[in-house]
Amino acid sequence: MNLIKFALRRPISVMVLVLGLLFFGIKAAKDVKVDILPDMNLPVVYVAHSFNGYTPQQMEGYFTKMYVNMLLFTNGIKSIESKNTQGLTLMKVNFYEGTNMGEAIAQINALSTRSQVFLPPGAPPPFIIRFDSSSQPVGQLVFRSNTKTNNELQDIANFNARPFLIAIPGLTTAPPFGGSPRTIEINVDPVKLRAHHMSPEQVVEAISRNNITSPSGNVYIGETNYLTPTNNTVKKVEELGDIPLFKGTADNVYIRDVATVKDGADIATGYALIDGKRSVYINIAKASNASTLEVVNKLKKSLPKIQRNMPDDVQISYEFDQSVYISNALKSLAVEGVLGALLTGLMVMLFLNDRRAALIVIMTIPISIISGVLFLKLFGQSINIMSLSGLALAIGILVDESTVTIENIHQHFAMGKTRAQAIWDACQEIAFPKLLIMLCILAVFAPAFMMSGIPGSLFMPLAMAIGFSMIVSFVLSQTFVPVMANWMMKHDPKTCENHRPNWFTKFRDRFTVFLSSLMKRKKMMVSLSLASVLCLGTGLYQITGKDVLPAVNSRQFQVRIKAAEGTRIEVTEIKVKKFLEHLKGKVGKDNIAISSVFIGQHPSTFAVSPIYLYNAGPHEALIQVALKKFDGNSDELKDELRKYYKEKMPDLQISFEPIELTEKILSQGTNTPIEIRVSGMMKKMNRMYAEKLLTKLKEIEYMRDQQIPQSMSYPALQINIDRTRAAQLGLDAQDIAKSLVTATASTRYTNKNFWVGGMMGIAYDVQVQTPQNILNSKEELASLPLSKNSDRPVLGDVATITPSKELGESYNLGTMGYTTITANIHKTDLEQASKDVKKAIESLGELPKGVNIELSGMSPVLDETMNSLSSGLLIAAAVIFLMLAATFQSFRVSLVILTTVPFVIVGSLALLKITGSTLNLQSYMGLIMSVGVSIANAVLLISNAEMIRKSTGNASEAGIEAARLRIRPIIMTTLAMAAGMLPMAIGFGEGGDQVSPLGRAVIGGLIFSTFSVLVILPLVFGWIQNNASIISPSLDPEDEESIHYSNTHS
Which of 279, 389, 450, 958 is the most buried (most CB within 10 A)? Predict the structure, then answer.
């Protein structure tokens, strides 16, 4: 081979190349983006629109339907899902795979701007954000204080801390969670208004006319250019109380006579609790092109600087750090790399008794890994949990590359050759088989380039990491290894004459005798083996559970609790604190590292916040808990907590949700693995069938938290205006509505007004409202004054107030409504759960026209993932078959090599089933890797067997001899790789259970692969190639191996 010749003739050039790879590789490792997940390019955009005070039905009718009709002009839209709750429309716009998302967002922005014309007056523009890995928080910056209210902390976090955060490259944030924005409150007193024959609308009008913003302009007098500022806007908050309210008489009434002015906050719609105390936190996210690890590390370094700029009684801390996953993965790779290198060296020492050879093999592993990182950086990839998994898997193949070369060199040493000649002959002998092995392994991962959606996004960096490392390792085995072998390995040809058999030689001889005895019954043995493995494989595939990701034993968990619909946030807060107290009693008071809770809804000012954390109303709370120590099973803990709270707090409805970033992104916004949508134009019909299906799901033993999460019976006070009576009193619906807005909401959106104040000169909203503690009964609401006329009408004069139940949430798929059923699963795989749900749906019988039921949640993701991986494996097998046939010029030989694949699959599935693991994205990667290693070993053996067969003409003897010659490198690489994967398979360290199925699949596949390559494969070769021709199929008359050569040169 030219590569080997170049290396041996120019060894210094080889060393320069290796040093260059190390230098630039280490530099790339420092500069490469480190992220939790690869860039998944999810075709999803969120549109959030808030308008305080509007009911869910109003948000649906005035906002959602208008947006949907407008957004349908966007190219590439697949579906539009929307949730409507009080004051909020949250739309999820799904696009088809391959859509240009930059153009899509630009179109949505343009169409949303056009939609503004058709929306209610005063509606603010929507907030539009793309959903991807960068839109999910990687941690929380928590603000605590023993003296300040959460509203004060909100202002400090928003205006004091966020400017420092934005200065950190790559860091992005949402508005602070937990407080309401600072607001100048004009709290009107209905009693005083009635006493002065006035209405809230007159207060609003007075504020609008006497606290205005207008340009000041200039006056030019003489040589001076004067500014002309006016006091159109009051300078001090208390001066708002001095604004007069004209009654039409000589005596003025001032705002202070009918209202109190307060520098406060917007009406509270939600609270955040940190460790049970009201606090504020900021969700920390990162830009799509930024490194998660770098952003988090820079934030941690900036914390002291940010803390110095906080008031003395405010403390900040960074909690729920998601970057630990990538940090742990990096540590695991380092440990596995070191362990793999040491174990490989140990195998070389054990089998070859050569320390210098072991050192050469050990050196190639880090060079290949670092070079792989270099090429990942050059091709725009990041270091993430998938590429790290690829590098971890690549270590096993790297072991194979160098070990086979070193072992073959020792075989040629044993022939009595000189060192230089032995190295040349050994490397040249296996150069082509190793090239073929590399191409076969690359072919195994080649389907990643044809996958789409989530599987393609996840599988691509893994395939590239393995591919780059594999190519570098091959080049090193053909250049660096022979050079170092010449320089380092000691060899005396005379010692070979006195060579005595060692333990392995004796084992190999016994194995050869055993294989020879099986060869006599090769047809029966092969037939029984293949039949058994095919039946066993089919059965194992059916009974092995299937998931998207393996279950993780985490010290963190997230749970959503719901009180009765319409429960006030203050009451929900009491229940949450009681929940946390019970939790301390269950897991240990000192075992909770931190708890973070958000109760109720976000202020309408922050429309983007529900994209990150959505609650349906004041009766809902989302709780995140991190434990200090936890060695048990997280699923068992959750089940214990369900039973515990069912007994302690039966009035609460609880549902556990994913907290790990990987699960949140893969679920694309769904809160549970099982989600079912019942859709149709008639909402009552949807609800009826959803309740029927929910009853059936509750009969499934392993399902948990089954519920219809929608708020369907929200308490309301229906105000029915008598327009005739109102007209008689000189009123119309608009007059009544204006007074109602002030009483039940505020004028924040209907009449914008500002006050500029504070040391930072920030503009704050001025809003007129009625204090919530005043309107504490139907009678108080009915006594609301409506107008300034002499009749002094109140709301009760022109309207009736009737208690009722209204829709608290409205879900839509396009313009069609739907009802959702959600459920968690316990000790069961997702595939089995999906099958049982489909059976439950079928048991409902034929559905009425217009009613549709579909399974959403993680089930479609599972189907897409398994279909992509299975089809990818089949494509890889077909590519390898054709490539081998082209290489060996024989379809028979290609078929012989592929007979190892069923054994590998059975081995992987068997160990997964024995250890209780499922077939998921991680274990499937391990299975595919095992197939690649198995084919590599098979190529190494069969290429030798075919060469011997052509020289001797006996296929059976060729198979036995090839197995005898290649048993040592095959066992060496198998043991080294299996030992290197053992810590991963056991699941050592935090998050180890996330990659343990990968290690188990590899080890199981390797065990069966070794058996099939060394025992079954020679038998298959002896059978299939028994009567095969030894004549070359070449048709070229100039080819010496062609049968046509002798005819033309005789």
Answer: 389
Cβ distance 273 to 573 under 8 Å?
yes
Checking if the pLDDT of 134 tops 70, the result is no
pLDDT given at position 416: 80
702's tokens:
């392993």
| pLDDT digit string, tens, across residues 11-39 | 999 999 999 999 999 999 888 888 877 88
Given this model, what pLDDT does residue 497 score?
A: 47
Per-residue pLDDT tens over the stretch 727-743: 888 888 888 888 888 88
Domains delineated in the chain: 2-31+326-491+504-549+863-1024 (1.20.1640.10), 36-134 (3.30.70.1430), 182-265+715-806 (3.30.2090.10)
What HEC string does 366-429 produce? Answer: HHHHHHHHHHHHHCCCCECHHHHHHHHHHHHHHHHHHHHHHHHHHHHHCCCCCHHHHHHHHHHH
Per-residue b or e along 336-354, where b marks 16 or more CB atoms closer than 10 Å to that residue's CB: bbebbbbbbbebbeebbeb
Residue identified by tokens 């000012």 is: 605
Mean pLDDT confidence for 729-758: 83
Within 8 A by CB and 6+ apart from 610, the residues are 48, 88, 90, 601, 602
What does the block give as tokens for 378?
Answer: 């050059």
Query: Locate tokens 């929608």: which residue?
Result: 710
Its pTM stands at 0.83
Q: Whose CA is closest to 11, among 402, 357, 482?
A: 482
Residue with tokens 């006497």, as numbered in its chain: 210
Q: Per the structure block, which two tokens stand in for 91?
A: 């739309």
| Structure token pair of residue 39 | 């860039």
Backbone angles phi, psi at 678, to 5 degrees: -110, 110
Q: What is the pLDDT of residue 221?
A: 92
Give the H or E element holding residue 171: strand 171-173
Tell me how far apart the alpha carbons of residues 223 and 610 are, in angstroms, rounded to a whole number.
56
> What gap in Å lies between CA 472 and CA 367, rounded to an integer?
8
If we measure between CA atoms, which residue out of 1011, 1013, 968, 1000 comes closest to residue 400?
A: 968
Neighbours of 987 (CB within 10 A): 20
d(CA 8, CA 476): 12
Task: Report the b/e string of 835-857 with b at 16+ CB within 10 A.
Answer: ebbeebbeeeeeeeeebebebbb
